[in-house]
Amino acid sequence: MSDAAGPLGLDRQDGDGDGVVTRVYLAALQHPEPTRSLLVAQGMKAPLVDHSLEVLQERGLVRLQPGGVIEVIPPDISLPTLALSYERRARETRSAAHELSQVFFQARAATTTPDAGTIRILNSLDEMAAVTAEAIATGTEIVRVFRAPSPRTDAIFDSPLHSHEEPSHGAGGIVLDMASVYDSRVLDLPDALTVLEARERGGERFRLTTSVPFSCVIVDDTAAIVDVSAFDPTGFGSALVRARAMVLALIALFDHFWTLGSPLQRAGSGSAAEQRDQLILSLLAAGAPDATIARQTGVSQRTVERRVRALMDQLGAGTRFQAGVQAGRRGLI
C-alpha cells in the first residue's frame, strides 16, 4: 500500500492504494472556500473526487452543500471523533474475535473425528429459511438471535408487516420467548423501525449494538442456524449446528452481544423535542451514525450533529458513545 495515505489513514479502510481520499481531504483543507469543481480543476478525476467526498462526509470530516460547495469540519473536532470511533470498533472486533475463538475450539474439543450428523452445510437462502422454520417449530422455550446486515436479513425485513407481528410458535403451538440483538446498521434498511416495532408487538425483545459479524438463530440449546450470507450472498456455507458444545458457545456469543446492546427508546412522555432527544440518545448508545439518526428522527443531519453536541455537553460526555452510556445510567433511555 502506498504511503500516500499518510498518518491520517483515511484510505486504508477502503483499499484506496493511491491515497486519493487523503489527498482530496488535504486539498479541501487548504482552500478557504473549497468546491468540487475546484478539486477537479486541480487535475483530480471527477469520479474519484465524488467517491472521496462521500467517504469524507460519511466519516464526519466534511459536509456537502448544494452546488458542489464543501464545508470542512474543523479537524480539531472531527478527527478526534473519528479516532474514537475507530478505537471503539477495534475493541468490539477484538471482543468478538475472542468469542468466535470459543466457538472454534469448543467445536473441536469434543472429538478428533467430528460427527458429520451434527453439522449440516446449507446451500441457499431458501434452504436456510426452511431449516430455520423447522427448528423453531420444535422449540420449547426460547429463540435467541443475533443478526448482522446480510441478504438473509434483507429478506426478513422485506417480509409483510403482519408476519412480523405474529409470535413464534414452537412444539405443540406454544409461544416461544424471542430475544434478538441487531447490528445497528440494520436501521439503514427501509422502514427498519416500523419492522422492529412490529416484531416487538409480536413478543420479541430486542437490543441494538455494533460490529455483529454474522447472523445466527439459536433454538433452546439444541440447534443453531449460522447465517454467513453476509460473506456469500447465495447463503452457501451457512450451517445447521446441533453439536451441543458449539450451540452453547453460540449462546455465549449471544449473551455477550446482549450485554453490549442497548434497547431502543422511542416516543415517551414530554414534548416532541424531548422525545426526539430521547431517541437520539438511544440511537447513540446503539452506535448509530448521524446519517442513520437523521433518517430515523426525520430531521437533517446538521440538526442531529448540533443536538448530539448539545447532549454531549449536557451529559458531560467526551464521546458520542459515552453520551449514550451516561443517558442509560441516568435513566434517560
Q: In total, how many beta strands?
A: 9
Q: Name the structural class.
A: alpha+beta
CATH class of the largest domain: Alpha Beta
Following the backbone from N to C, one meets helices and strands in this order, namely: HHHEEHEHEHHEHEEEEHHHHH
Number of domains: 3
Radius of gyration: 22 Å
Which stretches of 5+ consecutive residues score pLDDT under 50? 1-7, 109-116
Question: What average pLDDT do the residues reach?
Answer: 83
Query: What is the number of helical segments per DSSP (H or I, 4+ residues)?
Result: 13
**Large-scale geometry:** globular
Query: Which architecture of the largest domain would the CATH scheme give at its second level?
Result: 2-Layer Sandwich
Helix content: 40-55%
Classify the fold: give the CATH topology of the largest domain.
Endonuclease, Chain A
Q: Main sheet: which strands, in order across? A: 3-9-8-7-4-5-6
* CATH H-level superfamily title of the largest domain: Endonuclease Chain A
Q: What's the main sheet like? A: 7 strands, mixed
Q: Which quaternary structure do these chains form?
A: single chain
What percent of residues are in strands? 5-15%
Distance between the termini: 44 Å
Organism: Pedococcus aerophilus
Pfam family, one: GerE
Protein name: HTH luxR-type domain-containing protein
InterPro entries: Sig_transdc_resp-reg_C-effctor (IPR016032), TrmB-like (IPR051797), Tscrpt_reg_LuxR_C (IPR000792), WH-like_DNA-bd_sf (IPR036388)
